[in-house]
Amino acid sequence: MLTYTDFLLAMPLFSLTVTVLLIIATEAARVGRARFSQFLAITGLLVTSLLAGLNLRESGVAFQGMIATDAASSYLTILLSLAGIVTALVARPYFEHRDAHRGEFYILLLFAIIGMVLMASANDLITLFLGIELMSFCLYVLAGFERTKDKQNESALKYFLLGAFASAFLLYGIALIYGSVGSTNLDAIARAYAGISNQPLFLLGTAMLIVGLGFKVAAVPFHMWAPDVYEGAPTVVTGFMATAGKSAAFAALAIVMIRTFDIGGSTTADVLALLAAASMVLGNVVAIAQTNLKRMLAYSSVAHAGYLLAGVAAGTAEGFAGVFLYLTAYTVTTLGAFAVIGWHERTNDEGTSLDDYVGLSQHQPVIAAVMALYMFSLTGIPPFAGFIGKYYVFMAAVRADLTWLAIVGVLTSAVSAFYYLRVIVMMYFRERDGEHIPLPRIPVMIALGITAALVIVVGVLPSTVLQLFMPAM
Amino acid sequence: MLESYIPIFMMLALGVAFAVAMGKINEIVGPKRPSEEKLSTYESGMEPVRTARERFSVKFYMVAMLFIIFDIEVVFLYPWAVSFRSLGIQGFVTMLIFLSILLIGYYYVWRKGALEWD
Amino acid sequence: MDLYTISFYMFAVLLLGSAIVVVFSRNIVRAAFALMITLLSIAAFYVLMMADFVGIVQLLLYVGGILVLILFGVMLTNRQISVDIREGAIQTIPAVIVTSTIGGILAGAIWSTAWPMREAARSVAATAPVIGEMFLTTYLLPFEVASVLLLVALVGAALIARRERKS
After folding, report:
1. Residue B13 lies in a domain
2. How many domains does chain A divide into?
3. What is the pLDDT of residue B53?
4. Which of A83, A118, A128, A149 lies 20 to 30 Å from A433, alpha-carbon distance?
5. Which subunits sit against B, judged by 3+ Cβ pairs under 8 A?
């Protein structure tokens, strides 16, 4: 039977669902315009993060072990809601400028966040899979949100076809794990792990799980979709799926690999370490050759998936903490960077090329400074958030005897400085002859303010952030 | 257990046999007066030979999609329906939530004009 | 050979034969109809495994729904039904290597696993009531999430297939 605790622990999920149903109803009844849906969405997300904040010190399983709420999942719910709020703030100016502002955007955005929260708090492979599908469905549609644009159609179709393929792998992996354990419950799998961790069937299930989730996080060699999808999708959607989507998928990966499987030192960890190294090298090297900023950030996101995988491969509580801290840093930084790109982008998909940013500092010094801040953070220069994320992840890798991986990480970070700092060089050290772009509208300014502030806060006070999702550390 | 499927097999076999027999009887007994119109391909009253490069409205797919979605919903209803009595009021409320979520979706696609043909 | 074994091999032959037609047929409509036989045979396998509810789901959704959608797509999108769907052999060798490796690993894993055999499973009564009860107790949350998932599909389909209103 359900108890009061069940509902208490699932409160963020309920508030999200009620909000989205409300938006659907008002959209259908044509009560308000799209901006009313935006208002409802932001309000709902604020309430959700508040409820998740109240759950930060709660922990337990709910709904017969289907979901588990603890500090980490509640913290991630807050982070995902924040990503949702920033995306909703940026979306209206972006789509209104392109004459494509529709209330459906917020419906799909909230549904995606419901899926992500389910992933972050999954305590059963069934819940995990449903969460991933819920998120993916929404992202497929969002990637092609402006139906008349060919590039977005291409992006949506590619994402959908490859995503469906990856989901099949994931589901097959879940089936094989169920076959060898006899349960899909993560607690039951964790109990059985020591006895079955060398069974071929279980290893095969794990491998397929890694393929499926590896696709969702865009790790090499399952990254092929990312550049085309990131470039083709509307910039606000790209920002959202690169950050929130990746965060949820990595939370799921960390929960399964570290908490459930306890992979530290095993062959699975070695495989993940190899994927991590490959992602770091390929992502960073190919990013150098990009001239389009969205495409460059797509390859950069592949590289960041590599750094995050290093934390997962460590397989320790430290690695877990490192992944969550890195996700925070990566999410706030990249969201901000995509908000800047979305503002700079013109109606006909122009303005995303690196050359378009030449001399931006002369016309919009504040925006250029904020963008420079994001680029420093992505490179991993102290005292910004990106540095802290990398520091914790690499430390976890070293302590787990993966020193070589940490070295690869540091070296590739140095390589990444080349293309991140090139953006700054373009903005500051070149003469501008392009058109003058007016200051962003207030919501975008607020979004930039929030993310920029967080980039600094996370960078300066990492232990406070760590306390939020790891009270024991 | 498996024996309970024998009637289904018999019905399948009977159905196939009946269809084949009717076709054959028609072929043997029926009068044959062929004409050009009769010999051409019949396809739901549409003209059989036309250009292949033709675009079809997305609304055909829309109807098919909606059909599948509500088809899945029925599948979920089935196991609940067979044990309706034993599941009691809690099962009823749960199902009501399930259905009302979908009902909101139904209202939404209705108001958005997805169910209208033109 | 009892009835069970005979039906098993009968459907196995049907399944493999029709699946081969699906893959190798040059006619896309013929492939789609062969897929129907494949899906029906899979439904028969579920029944043979005493999973009557899953069998019904297979019939209702895959044969009754998804296959109809596929045929719909095939017939509407390209009326030139005799189109050759295989445009020559592109990367046959890598494909053969990848599929045979995956197939080999899978077969090896299945072979080497000590599957828990349950003789009692052969005499289980109708599964639908049990599944119904599981839906509303243990799997309550996934059950409700499934309706949310369907709602997303509805909204997404309506969004993609909408008509542009000129205002």
Report:
1. yes
2. 1
3. 58
4. A149
5. A, C
